[in-house]
Amino acid sequence: MTAPDPHPPVQAPFFVRGELIHGEAAVHRSRDLGMVFATPAIPFDRIVTPRGEVPPLLNVPTTEIIDFLVETGQRLAAPGNPFVEECFARMAATHVLPRGVIEAVARHAVAYLDRGVLEAELRASFPDPAALDGWIETTDPSGRRAEVRAFAPRLLHILPGNSPGVAIKSIAQGALVKACNLFKMSSADPFYTVAILRTMAAIDPGHPLVRSMSAVYWSGGDTLVESVLCRPQYFDRIVAWGGGETIAGLARYAGPGLQLVSFDPKTSISMVGHEALATDALLAETAERAAADLMMLNQEACAASRFQFVEGPENQVDRFCEHFQRAIARRAVASEDVRPLPRDLREQIEALRLLDEDYRVWGRPDGTGLVIRSTEPVDFHPSHKIANVVRVDRLEAALAHVNVATQTVGVAPAERMAALRDGLAAAGAQRVCPLGEAGPSTNGTPWDGMYPLHRFVLWVVNERGCAPDRSAPPV
């Protein structure tokens, strides 16, 4: 007789257009911790909205959609939400971040479901948001008339596993453009999206918004699934978050009728001018701001800074490094996520410390934060609360290390942003902000170089021809 498994798989149900689906048809392992979780079989015939079916949200006013999203946010933030509590308990087994960090990130993300934030997003994305609710008449200089509409798309969302906040934003954005949405969850978090959708169904299980949403899981890159779903007869856009391998794998499905809108893998940097180190008080404040940017999502976020280009003589930059490491350590301990560095990373850093006089290291490889000072960026990807401070004589020297994969650039003092931003944009950077303010971003501004909602919709035109010439005499 076989003994029962002392660690049975964590259950990860699906949500399909208002219905919760349980099952153990497939067993998977989470990306970071290797924990086992079980999912139902994917109901292919139910997660795709047929082309002959009018999108459920098409004729629902955006004001009503916003009302529903705002109420969802209130319920997600309310203490004791059973779907959220159950979700966090399960995520603790599969996610690399501690439960306390996950809960804090989710609480902050709910702020996106605010009426003012959602309305600002619409105003910024559309010259006339009324195009979402109906056909907008326009006349060109020659007198030709047309009506234009931002038509509801069919979106396949590939969600990341590093932040539960992306699930909230993706659901809200899919609702604002009245899309039929299928969310592919991550193995690090196959739970939170379903918890949000269950919260919505508790408000009104038959609401068109609920009927426009499905969330399932499959292993990323599984061609047996993706070759079936990634077709223009089923979806208009693949909206993908993820690493280079994920984006490249999905790009092969893009073509006529099916576009890839990708939030590519990004890194972020800080640029610190000598003015921000001029006094002890300024230096300490700058170090705290730099630590805030580095420690976003425990350095898991795209906007989390990994390289700090600091302008000044070596002794002054070294003083900054000392304060910087202490500031990182304080945040690391407060995060409750203190894990020793992986062996290969420890060995790389130890080699730098011992063999190269151009490098200096502050801190220990115990997970409380390390600062490596160098004259050129290190040749590995700083992570696990590691900062690489690159000393430069002039901040402009950092432009040589900026490219299209550079997302956010935090600058101190803020007065130097104006002189740097054109060069940063030309090099490929997409966002410039004051040091310490890498997150959250200003509501209604572009993200990753675009206005996502404008990219999601289908822009459809109904030509009406020339207006009759009323001035001509009757025949």
What does this structure look like?
With 475 residues, the protein is α/β, with parallel strands linked by helices. The chain folds into two domains: 10-264 and 449-460, 3-Layer(aba) Sandwich (Aldehyde Dehydrogenase, Chain A, domain 1), CATH 3.40.605.10; 267-434, Aldehyde Dehydrogenase, Chain A, domain 2 (3-Layer(aba) Sandwich), CATH 3.40.309. It contains 14 helices and 20 strands. The strands form four sheets. The chain has a seven-stranded mixed sheet with strand order 3-2-10-9-8-11-12, with helices on both faces. Strands 15-16-17-14-13-18-19 form a seven-stranded mixed sheet, sandwiched between helices. β9, α7 and β10 form a beta-alpha-beta unit.
Strand order of the largest sheet: 3-2-10-9-8-11-12
- Work out the helix count: 14
Provide the domain count.
Answer: 2
Helix content: 25-40%
Overall strand count: 20
Main structural class: alpha/beta
Q: What is the distance, rounded to the nearest whole angstrom, between the alpha carbons of the first and last residues?
A: 98 Å
The CATH homologous superfamily of the largest domain is called Aldehyde Dehydrogenase, Chain A, domain 1
How is the topology of this model organized?
Elements: E1 10-11, E2 14-16, E3 19-21, E4 26-29, E5 36-39, H1 44-47, H2 62-77, H3 82-94, H4 99-109, H5 115-125, E6 136-139, E7 144-151, E8 154-158, H6 165-176, E9 180-184, H7 192-203, E10 213-216, H8 223-229, E11 237-241, H9 244-251, E12 259-263, E13 267-272, H10 280-294, E14 305-311, H11 314-335, H12 343-355, E15 360-363, E16 370-374, E17 386-392, E18 406-412, H13 417-427, E19 431-434, H14 452-456, E20 458-466
Parallel strand pairs: 1-5, 8-9, 8-11, 9-10, 11-12, 13-14, 13-18, 14-17, 16-17, 18-19
Antiparallel strand pairs: 2-3, 2-10, 4-5, 6-7, 7-20, 15-16
Protein name: Long-chain-fatty-acyl-CoA reductase
Organism: Novosphingobium aerophilum
Pfam families: LuxC
